[in-house]
Amino acid sequence: MAPNQWLNPQNGVNYQVAVQTPQILIDSFDAMMRTPVTGGGGLPPGSQTVMPNTTQVTGNPAANTLYTTAAAPNRSLSSYANPGQQPGGTQLLYNLAGLQRGVSTEIVNHYNVQPVFDIYANVDRRDLGGVRGDIEKILEQMRPHLPKGVRLDLGGQAETMQSSFIRLGVGMVFAVMLVYLLMVVNFQSWEDPFIILMALPGAFAGVLWMLFITQTTFNVPSLMGAIMSVGVATANSILLVTFANDERIVGKDVREAALSAGFTRLRPVCMTALAMLLGMLPMALSLGEGGEQNAPLGRAVIGGLTLATFSTLFLSFRLFIRICGRKFPSITANSSPRRNTKHWINQGKVNNMLDTGLEAGEKLLPPHEEQSLLEAPAEEKLRAEVEALRKEVEQLRKGEKKHSHKPQRPRGRTLWIVGIALLVVLAGAFFPGWLPHHAQEKELQKEAREEAQALPKINFVRVEVSGSTDTPVLPGTTEALTDAPILARADGYVVSRFVDFGDRVKKGEEMAVIAAPDLDQQVVQARAQLAQAQAALMQANANLQQGKANEELARVTADRYRNLVVRGAVARQDNDQQQTNFQALVSNVGALQQAEDAARQNVESSRANLQRLIELQGFEHVTAPFDGVVTLRNIDVGALITTGSTLLFRVAQIDRLRTYSDVPQPNAPGVAVGQVAQLTSGEFGTRQFAGHVTRTAGALDPTTRTLVTEVQVPNPQGTLQPGMFVNVSIQNERSNPPILVPGDALIVDASGAHTGVLRDVRQVPPDEQQNAQKKQAETVEGTIHLQQVSIGRDYGAATEVLAGLSRGDRVIVNPNDDMREGTKCRPL
Question: 16: which of 68, 163, 298, 459 lies 20 to 30 Å off by Cα?
Answer without folding.
Answer: 68
